[in-house]
Amino acid sequence: MITNLDRLWKNTQEELRVIMAPAVFQTFVAKTQLITLKNNLATIACPNSYLVDINHKRYLQLFRDALDNQTKTKNKLQFILQPPLSPSSDSAKNSSPLFSFTPPTASNTPNLHPQYTFDNFIVGNSNNYAYAAAQGIVKNPGLTHNPFFIWGGVGIGKTHLMQAIGHQIIKDNPQFKIRYFPAETFGNELISALKSKKMNQFKKKYRQLDCILVDDVQFLAGKEYTQEEFFHTFNALHMAGKQVILTSDRKPNDINKLEDRLVSRFMGGLTVDIQLPDYEMRVAIIKQKTEKKKIDITPSAIQFLSEKIESNIRDIEGQLQKIHIQALTQKIKTIDLSFVQNILEPSSSLTHPASATVTPRHLVSVCAKHFGVKTGDLCGKGRQKEIVLARHITAYLLLTEIKLPLKQVGQILGGRDHTSIMHARDKIHTQLSTNPPVRQLINQIKAIL
Ligand code: ADP
Ligand code: MG
Q1: Which terminal residue of the chain has fewer beta carbons within 10 Å of its beta carbon, N or C?
Q2: What does each C-alpha distance from 442 to 92, 312, 370 come to in angstroms?
């Protein structure tokens, strides 16, 4: 006879079938049975203790979400061992649950920085793809993207994002054994395990985990024995469907002296990169960091900082720290534009004598003459290549030689928006190091000014 419970469970399983890999569904879900559901506590029978264990550790959240969807309420779940030949619900009532909901134990120490959470992670153009993928992973650890490989330059949030995933997985699955470690730590521990003949303990320590967060795997480059051991650890966990998350300062195939088999393993899931933050994101980050620390700062000071600090997020934090300390020592309550200007460019008028003597009008006319265009063209709407380059260089020099604010440069150059001036500045800034003719042009103009 098909009972309501059977029907409910069948629908729940169907929901799980859609989101799980077929093999995972067949192995872990198909053979389970809902035995009782009382006071929102669902008891689910598994045919062997391995399934009890694995379903509780790895798939509890998935089961719970699917069941909650069906019952439209929040349920608690427990998995019990019940071999298939005794499906009577009486015996289920008498079975003692092998697992119940317990908070994380002291041995489950994942090594996570308490501040590196999703709540503290600003999402912008440079990291929104990586963030979206991370959100997918926490919903179904081990199933969505495995491994998940995050790469990018220093100080752009790789470690933060990886640990945010760890925090969220533990929050949703308190039983999960998660560990964060730099690849270097893995290498060092391996060497001491070898020396003290404790390799078995070493292997067990890593292979019993449900999720590993391995930071800066570029460290493995050239370390053959560490690569070998890491390869086996990776395989053991990955084959068991455990989530592996890795970071590096470059793509797997750009890491020199990394064995091909590791490169291909690392690229076997999803590889994402994080870029330097753009202007809007820098504003959001400065706002978030100052609000958190209750630092009183004016919007124009935030805007100035966001325009000035074009590098990574760690540098932004460093500059903010410097400004905050100066404000505290000088007993300044509100940090305003002139205060940050003084800190970031304490002697701009001394180091840039041009700013004292050169007027904007003079600079624009020198540029126009040098490029053989009319002043009106520089400030006009023309988009010919030569005019655009001349305009960008003029904007750059107005900003760097006379220290005019972005807005004013925009006004001088035909009422342009301050963001387009900012883009012009960034473009020329890059070309200075990559394009020798442009560098030469700028030096020639500076010499005439
Ligand atoms: P990476 O590992 O890429 O070198 P981190 O993750 O250590 O960089 O980040 C450097 C600092 O910047 C950390 O203090 C981190 O909290 C902060 N940070 C990075 N990305 C973000 C972000 N998107 N939002 C807020 N803070 C961030
Ligand atoms: Mg890092």
Answers
A1: N
A2: 82, 27, 10
Q: Which of 314, 316, 321 to mutate to test the pocket of ligand 1 (most atoms within 8 A of CB)?
A: 314
335 DSSP 8-state letter: B
Query: What interhelical angle do 199-207 and 183-195 show, nearest 10?
Result: 150
Report d(CA 166, CA 299) in Å as an integer. Answer: 34
Kindly report the average pLDDT of the chain as a whole number.
88
**Whether residue 154 has its Cβ less than 6 Å from ligand 1:** yes
CA gap 127, 275 in Å, rounded: 7
Check if the beta carbon of residue 112 is closer than 8 Å to that of residue 235: no
CA of 247 to the centre of ligand 1 (A): 13
Q: What is the DSSP string of 145-213?
A: SSSEEEE-STTSSHHHHHHHHHHHHHHH-TT--EEEEEHHHHHHHHHHHHHTT-HHHHHHHHHT-SEEE
| CA of 163, closest atom in ligand 1 | 6
Per the omega criterion (within 30 degrees of 0), is the bond before 83 cis? no
Euclidean distance between CA atoms 335 and 229, whole angstroms: 52
Cα–Cα–Cα angle for 63, 68, 70, rounded to 5 degrees: 100
Cβ of 127 closer than 6 Å to ligand 1, yes or no, is yes
The position carrying tokens 């655009």 is 388
Whether the Cβ atoms of residue 36 and residue 93 lie closer than 8 Å to each other? yes
C-alpha torsion sign, points 242, 246, 251, 253: negative
Query: What are phi and psi for residue 24, nearest 5 degrees?
Result: -65, -40
Q: Which of 179, 147, 175, 152 is nearest to 163 (CA)?
A: 179
Rounded Cα distance, 55 and 49, in Å:
10
Question: What is the pairing mode between strands 33-38 and 41-46?
Answer: antiparallel
Which strands sit side by side in the sheet containing 76-81, from one edge to the other? Answer: 33-38, 41-46, 76-81
Confirm if 95 and 81 have CB atoms less than 8 A apart.
yes
Question: 95 with 210: CB under 8 angstroms?
Answer: no
**Coil, helix or strand for 374?**
coil
Tell me the mean pLDDT per 10 residues along the chain, length 449: 82 84 81 90 86 84 90 90 54 36 46 94 95 96 95 95 97 93 95 95 95 97 96 95 96 95 97 93 96 95 91 92 91 94 67 67 92 91 92 94 92 93 88 79 84
